[in-house]
Design a protein that fits this description.
Structural class: mainly alpha
Number of helices: 16
Strand order of the largest sheet: 1-4
Helix content: 40-55%
Order of helices and strands: EHEEHEHHHHHHHHHHHHEEHH
Mean pLDDT: 90
Oligomer: single chain
Length: about 325
């Protein structure tokens, strides 16, 4: 594509037209300092359309020049007859060939190119030329990202939502997906914990014939999520615990009864008794810590008395 270099008044540039914008970083302070010191080394690409200038590439450079108080920039201007596909290719290549693109930027780049190809397979075959080599399956996953709500895009950029979780949420009905994404953005959890919470919520909703929104609006959940005095990690742990109690009420009741029986045994200090996790296994664990033969003899006596306690017999029978 051929360009002509020309001075363009900043006032003629349409800053509202972001159709070709790929970059997601709004901070231009460092770039402005560089341009102020060294000048505008790479002129932006501007295309005249109906008496106005549309930015094809160089959104951050234009913003930096505005911040510096410039009134005119030297720009590369393609001819008026330049095709839309050529403009899209120039925007993508200039971004992708200079730096690695994040997920949202890659999605924007693919969305610019996609209308000019008949299939994801064709786009994939050409993608390497534009600096974004992706296979058709990945293109299908990435394309929708730039159409997500801005808060979800921000969560993807800061790592709160992974591409895998976005795919998971995209398979849910839109109302549920929005509520769940808001939850995961509020409580920053690892992908494995997000999946655990997602499974628990959906199982509780299925079991109780309710919706995700209605479940999470219940005070026990809503108050926890909104409480600013509780650390995020603590909130996430409590949420998982509450959901497990709700999903497995019988297990929760059995655990509370077992805890009460163990407390009644008064196994404090060097002797502890641990039941099987979720009472699914058969093995109880009795731990004794000692540093001398006398301590071991004392623990032996305690164990002898423990064997006669009805609470232990009830625990071992799993009559909970």
């Amino acid at each position: 594509m051929n360009y002509s270099l020309a001075p363009v008044p900043l006032a003629e540039i349409d800053l509202q037209d972001t159709a070709f914008q790929i970059s997601t970083d709004p901070d231009v302070s460092g770039l402005a300092a560089s341009i102020d010191a060294l000048g505008l080394l790479v002129p932006p690409i501007l295309h005249r359309v109906d008496g106005r200038c549309v930015i094809i590439s160089g959104f951050r450079r234009i913003a930096a020049c505005h911040a510096l108080g410039w009134t005119t920039v030297t720009a590369r201007c393609p001819s008026a007859s330049t095709s839309a596909s050529a403009l899209a290719g120039a925007a993508v290549a200039e971004n992708a060939l200079q730096r690695p693109l994040n997920l949202i930027e890659t999605s924007r780049a693919l969305a610019l190119l996609a209308p000019h190809f008949n299939s994801h397979a064709e786009l994939s075959a050409a993608s390497e030329v534009f600096g974004i080599p992706e296979n058709p399956a990945m293109i299908q996953k990435l394309l929708p990202l730039c159409r997500l709500p801005q808060e979800m895009q921000a969560a993807i950029l800061d790592g709160t939502l992974s591409l895998a979780m976005v795919q998971e949420l995209g398979r849910r009905p839109l109302p549920a997906g929005k509520v769940l994404s808001a939850l995961f953005m509020a409580l920053k959890m690892s992908l494995s914990k997000q999946r655990e919470v997602l499974t628990l919520i959906e199982e509780v909703c299925h079991r109780e014939a309710t919706t995700v929104a209605d479940l999470l609006m219940e005070p026990v959940f809503a108050d926890l999520i909104k409480d600013p005095s509780i650390d995020g990690n603590v909130k996430a742990a409590r949420l998982r615990s509450l959901l497990k109690q709700r999903r497995y009420p019988a297990v929760h009741a059995a655990k509370e009864k077992a805890d009460a029986l163990i407390r009644a045994l008064k196994l404090t200090g060097p002797m502890t008794l641990t039941p099987p996790k979720d009472f699914e296994g058969m093995n109880f664990t009795l731990t004794m810590r000692f540093q001398s033969l006398d301590e071991l003899k004392h623990l032996h006596q305690r164990l002898h008395h423990l064997l006669d306690r009805p609470e232990l017999a009830q625990l071992l029978s799993k009559d909970l």
